Amino acid sequence: MTADFEVLRGQLTGTIATPGQPGYELAEPWNLAVPVTPAAVVAVADADDVAHTVRFAAEHGLRVAVQITGHGAVPLGDDVLLVHTAKLDECVVDAERRVARIGAGVVWQRVVDAAAPHGLAPLSGSAPHVGVVGYLTGGGIGPLAATFGVSSDYVRAFDVVAGEGQVRHVTATEHPDLFWGLRGGKATLGIVTAVEVELLPLASVYGGSFFFDGSESAAVLHAWASWSADLPDHATTSAVLVELPNSPRLPPAIAGKRLIAVRYASVADEQQAEEAFMPLRGVATPLLGGIGEIPAAEIGSIHADPTDAMPYQEYSVLLDSLPSDAVDALLAVAGPGSGSPLVVELRRLGGAIAKDAAHPSAVSHRDAAYSVGLVGRTSPESGDAVAGVAARTLAALEGWSSGGRMVNFGASADPAEIARAYDAETLQRLGALARQYDPKGTLAVGQVVR
Prior knowledge:
Blueprint: H1 5-11, E1 15-17, E2 40-43, H2 47-59, E3 63-67, E4 80-84, E5 91-94, E6 99-103, H3 108-115, H4 132-137, H5 145-148, E7 155-161, E8 167-170, H6 176-182, E9 191-198, E10 204-213, H7 217-228, E11 235-243, E12 258-266, H8 270-277, E13 288-295, E14 312-319, H9 324-334, E15 342-348, E16 370-377, H10 383-396, H11 415-419, H12 424-437
Parallel strand pairs: 2-4, 3-4
Antiparallel strand pairs: 1-2, 5-6, 6-9, 7-8, 7-9, 10-12, 10-13, 11-12, 11-15, 14-16, 15-16
Helix pairs in contact: 7-9, 9-10
């Protein structure tokens, strides 16, 4: 069936663009290596626009995907309508109730900035330029996760359009099956147009990062692994092996160098937070960095994730433990002298992540000890090389790996990769709910369970 997009255009308050028309450029993903070439881009103005788009797609045998920043992109072809949510820009903080209502076009930094004057903070991710909704529907493991848990546990309500094109308000008591699955199921059960989240009474954190020369990788990573295993729940930490570009935008002390960095964030008082970090001081001399009290609004500075779009490949796996042998195995394939082109990030999980949430959700693998993420910048010539090094790195860690991964760490449309993000019971339940709420498979595109 040929789709007449003029019919859809007449139903929309927002706009629709086909290839070559103004507005189609909104399809460009943050990962420039991913081919995203939908039949049209629908810049929706409200939830009704999303509903019209989903119903139109169902009638014409098309599928619907959703995007705001383009993080977590997967390939999209010309049988897909891409809903772009930038115009869904509501961001209202109710300080008395400690709740924020957030449209699907809003990134975390805007929420952080809106909450800060009230001494409040959302449980955001490490990259404040990422969209709120995509992060929360993937669960969300942020720089305070060991203290407060998975970010989606703080969702109080969703407005969502499911596969049949109906707008619903979803809470723990209204459509509780959707409330369960939207927290961790990505867009499996619907396209979220707005979300309400609980805010934390948090004005500042004690945190920061240290950068060490790559030659210190073994000493630092062994010390970090041993120290982080028993870290108290008031603190969260990660470590990263990286070779930075020789860019004038970077401090001269670290530009163009292979490094190991340690990140740390604690909500304890200064003395307690510093005492917890003390075992890592003196392990090596940092080239740059420091930790101290920072406003909660600057929490993104701890990870300082890149903000520019680039082509890359990413991989992820969860570990049951990180003993000394695992550190040695990782350094052999990805440490200094290995020639590895990968950024390797290790996040210590545990703490509140592993505790039962007040309302169960589709977020799985809460009992994992560490998450390992691999990212390799690619070009048309280097893609196979990056994939090969990533495969060897994952193989080196196989003895300590659970085989699973967190939903937001490593976007993929491969059903086998998607399945790794869930336990068997959760996977089966999400699939059953998808058949119920999306009987025609209109949303069966991208990182969704089917």
